[in-house]
Amino acid sequence: ITTYALLESPRATGAYRIVSRRQDGAAKGVVQDISADIFLRRDVERLGVAPLTSMYWFGKHDRHVAADWRPEVHDSDGLEIHTGGGERIWRPLNNPPRVMANSFATPSPQGFGLMQRERDFDQYEDDGVFYDRRASAWVEPLEDWGAGAVTLIELPTDDETFDNIVAFWTPADPAAAGREYRMNYRLSWLADNPLPPINARFRAVRLGKGGIPGQPRPADTVKVVCDFEATGLEGAERGPAIRTVVTASRGRVGGEAAYPVVGQDGWRAIFDIDFADLPPDEDEPIDLRVYVEHDGKAATETLILQLF
To answer: pLDDT tens, 170-186?
Structure first.
C-alpha cells in the first residue's frame, strides 16, 4: 500500500510518501519506506524526525513503582541505538519520577528504535493485550543524516493506558524558519531488530540490596544485575580475561564481576553502586555506562542505565 500524506501546522508544512509492505518468514511483520519533505515556517526549539511513541509502566528493574499483579507491563522495554561509529547502545526505559529528556549524540546514525526484547509470556501473564507480542519499531536512515542526536523523552505514568515514551532524531543545526529537510528512512515493525547482533545483547536488568549475602548489608547501596546473551562468548569461562566495565556519573562503583549463569545459555554482569555521599534532598539521577570486555575488547553492546 502506498500512502501520500500532507503535514500542515503553524510551524511546519510538508509531504510524505509511505510505502507499506507485509513481510513473511522468520522476520514477520510490516516494513515501511518513508520519504518526508519538511519545510519550517517558524523556528522550532526541538525538531523531532521519525518520531516513535510507546508505553512503559514498569519492568524488572523498577517493579516497585507499580501496585499491579502482573510482573511487567510495557509495550517497549528499551531504546536501541546503532551509532555511525559502530557502537551499539541499549538504554532500558524508565517510568521516572518527573519528566526526563535525554539526548544521545549520534552522528550519521545507522538506526534507532523502541524495542520489546522480553518475549516470554510468563514475564507478563497478560492474556488480554499480550505484551509479549508487541512489535519492536526500528528506524533505519536510507542516507547520511549527518550530525545530530537521538532524543528520548520519558513521562511519569501510573497506568498502562498512556503512551509516555517518545524517541526521535534531532538534527544538530538549529531548526530555523525557512529550513527544508528531506528525510528518507525505513520503519520496521518486527519482533526484533532487522539487523543481526554483532556482540552480546543485554536482555534484563534487576536491582536489589547491595553487599554480600550473609554479611551486614551496607546502607545506601544498590546491587545492579545485568543479564546478557552468550553471543561471542561461547565456550568462554569466568576469569580475569572477562571484566565488567562500569562508569558512573556519581556514586561509587564496586564489586564488579561477570560470569556464565549456571545451567543457562547466558551470562551475568553484577556490581554495586554506593550513593551514600549524595545529598539526600537531591533528585538528579545516576547515569551508568556498562559493558563487558573479553581480552580487552568489548564483548557486549553498551548498556546506559539511569537510576533515581
So the answer is: 999 999 999 999 999 99
What b/e sequence results for 173-184 when a residue is b if at least 16 CB atoms lie within 10 Å of its CB, and e otherwise? eebeeebebebe
pLDDT 10s digits, 27-71: 899 999 999 999 999 999 999 999 999 999 999 999 888 889 999
Residue 100 grid coordinates? 526526563
Whole-structure pTM value: 0.95
Do residues 77 and 56 make contact, with C-beta atoms less than 8 angstroms apart?
A: yes
User: pLDDT band at residue 26, thresholds of 50, 70 and 90?
Assistant: confident
Reference 71, options 83, 81, 62; nearest CA is 62
Helix/strand/coil for 65: helix
Residues forming beta bridges with residue 80, ordered by sequence position: 90, 113
CA 222 from chain centre, in angstroms, equals 21
Question: 69-74 long-range CB contacts below 8 Å, 24 or more apart?
Answer: 69/125, 70/124, 70/125, 70/126, 71/122, 71/123, 71/124, 71/125, 72/118, 72/123, 72/124, 72/131, 73/124, 73/126, 73/131, 73/160, 74/116, 74/131
What are 182's three cell numbers? 528531506
In order of 97, 200, 206, 304, the CA distances from 245 in angstroms are: 28, 15, 17, 12
